[in-house]
Amino acid sequence: MKHFEYLENIDLHDAPVKSFIFDFESKTISFQVLLYSEKKNDYDILEILFQKVHELQLADIIIKDMKDVDVFDLEIIENANRLFSTKISLNTGFGNGVSVVSFNFSELLIVQPSNLPAA
Hints:
Oligomer: single chain
Order of helices and strands: HEEEEEEEE
Strand order of the largest sheet: 1-2-3-8
Radius of gyration: 14 Å
Strand content: over 45%
Structural class: mainly beta
Number of helices: 1
Largest sheet: 4 strands, antiparallel
Number of domains: 1
Shape: globular
Distance between the termini: 5 Å
């Protein structure tokens, strides 16, 4: 299954965000979320690695409590010439609204726990 199709089949809404790393030198963004495993009664880490990133947009992001961030929505749209636009909407704590990170990329890699289906 392609990485994009894999993401379409995972519900990331309300998934806690573990990390969001911007590597400007290598033009990558690593986005890690925690997915609950009922089998283990614990969380597994799913890493989405966006590569060849450009046109990063950060607007009015205010996170008061770094432990209280989860995914509201992740949207990926394919544009011309295998370029993709992404919008990641984050809940930034109760009553704080949604903050959005937008960027374009051309390659995607998913690193998932061994108990999830292969991408």
